[in-house]
Amino acid sequence: MTDNNTNAPASPATSESRPATARRTGALLGHMDVPGDKSISHRALMLGALAVGTTRIEGLLEGEDIHATANALRAMGVTVIQDAPGIWHVNGVGVAGLHAPDDVLDLGNSGTSARLLCGLLAGHGFTAIMTGDDSLRKRPMNRVIDPLTQMGVRVETREGGRMPMTFTGTDMLLPMIYTLPVPSAQVKSAVLLAGLHAPGQTTVIEPIATRDHTERMLTHMGAEITITETPEGRHITITGQAELSPAHVTVPSDPSSAAFPAVAAAIVPGSEVTLEGIGMNPARAGIFESLRDMGARIEQTNLRDEGGEPVADLTIHGSALTGADIPASRAASMIDEYPVLAMAAACATGTSRFAGVGELRVKESDRLATVEAGLRACGVSVETDADSMTIEGCGEPPPGGATIATSLDHRIAMSFLVLGLAAAAPVEIDDIRPSETSFPGFAESMRKLGADIRDAS
Ligand code: S3P
Questions:
Q1: Beta bridge partners of 179
Q2: Where does a domain end: 204, 220, 250?
Q3: Is 115 a domain residue?
Q4: Given ligand 1 and candidates 116, 186, 254, 336, which is best to mutate, with the most ligand atoms within 8 Å of its CB?
Q5: What is the span of the domain harbouring residue 415?
């Protein structure tokens, strides 16, 4: 692996920051409409852009990260239109039909936009310059650049494989067989999307299974994909230079966003919260298994298939939680949910250990560091090393009473607001704005359940 994390602190909150405070609340009760899945929304727009004809998307996440993808596609000649709230259509230009953007593509906070677009651009013989916000410009891009360079693209980055970067694709891509050095659905997807443009077959081997939304949607749109399980991992093979058919895509509610009201309900005594139509793809649902391991009462009903993805309704009850060992084997299926699970662990009785979580160091912030610093500030005992985190549960409301640096990280912002609902003293975050990347209207949705979350809006 050639990328690593700088561990540099993210930029401090600015004068435009919007602090927010969460206070200990009575029982959370009712239903919440959880926004659409971020991963699936990115893919629906990008694959819709490559299809020939109009793709209709229902339940698209209307968060900032998705707008970053939509705007980048528009800058390359794709029509992306909102017909009604959550209902969008994309007029695809066909595989290799994008045109060169005439300005820098600014992908904001969105690592998924940046990395998947590299795969999309690989087969186009033009140059695009990509950048992002202070958080995204710290994140390693070599993990996608390495395989794509082997396929024939040329990329220049800042030191350490960081954006801004100048990316030049080619219409003469070479197919390849690539074994993922880190479990990353973004890298897998980038190589498969590049493979769509290459002659012959491109294979990604993933020793540890990661979210498979790209494979599912490519299949849904008529691409030729084969998946075989072998002792060395999953082999995913795509046949390139095929056409994609436009499709109707239904986006389930995001399990990663559902994790916030789910943990809030689990840690606030007497709560009963229902979340409907939540994505239950096994490669995403590890958080619910982990909460159950901690003693949370979660009822799952109405498991069904919507647009090729399993979804279900969940009702979460306030419960006395106990610490749990979360094995490394579960990390890929809940990689974005460790920050909020850490809040549950802080409220539990006993010790929780999260193993195999080193990838958290290269997310929107170094999440092992931001969670550790925030929990300590709230009076919770926590230790981390390169690849694990250990939390001593308080067994009673954690002290709280701190202001947390969110470091441009939406999941850190929302996690600590969740903690504040159960902590003895209020928890303030320095900026709630990052939550708009994945969960527009988070504070308002939580207030409807009875949460005491106040912000300056
Ligand atoms: C994502 C994959 C994960 C996840 C991210 C979304 C995706 O990243 O953390 O929020 O949509 O493919 P990695 O591929 O880096 O694990």
A1: 205
A2: 250
A3: yes
A4: 186
A5: 20-36+252-455
Cis peptide before 199 (omega within 30 of 0): no
Name every protein residue with a CB atom under 6 angstroms from any ligand 1 atom.
39, 112, 184-186, 189, 211, 335-336, 359
Integer-rounded Cα radius of gyration of the chain: 21
Average pLDDT over residues 247-260: 98
Q: Residue range 186-196: average pLDDT? A: 98
Domain total of the chain: 2
Distance 41 CA to ligand 1 centre (A): 13
> Strand ranges (DSSP E) for 169-222?
177-179, 201-206
- Hey, which residues are catalytic here? 336
CA distance 182 to 334: 15
Is 90 exceeded by the pLDDT of residue 259? Answer: yes
Ligand 1 centre from 426 Cα, in Å? 31
Closest CA to 210 of 240, 190, 238: 190
Q: What is the DSSP letter of 330?
A: G
Identify the domain boundary among 223, 250, 277. Answer: 250
pLDDT in tens, 194-214: 999 999 999 999 999 999 999
Q: What is the pLDDT of residues 373-428, one digit of tens each?
A: 999 999 999 999 999 999 999 999 999 999 999 999 999 999 999 999 999 999 99
Q: How far is CA 419 from CA 25, 172, 257, 336, in A?
A: 11, 52, 15, 17
Placement of tokens 């239109």 in the chain? 81
User: Can you tell me the distance from the alpha carbon of 427 to that of 21, in angstroms, rounded to the nearest whole number?
Assistant: 6
Is 0.90 surpassed by the pTM of this model? yes
Interatomic CA distance for residues 137 and 55, integer angstroms? 31
* b/e map 92-115, b = 16+ CB within 10 Å: bbebbebeebeeebbbbbbbbbbb
The Cα 412–Cα 435 span in angstroms is 9
Give the confidence band of 10 by pLDDT, cuts at 50, 70, 90.
very low
CA atoms within 13 A on the CB side of 303: 7
- pLDDT tens across 92-118, in order? 999 999 999 999 999 999 999 999 999
Lowest mean pLDDT segment, chosen from 9-18, 119-128, 356-365? 9-18
Cα(34)–Cα(22) distance, integer angstroms: 20
Q: Are residues 304 and 388 in the same domain?
A: yes
Point out which residues pair with 400 in neighbouring strands.
425
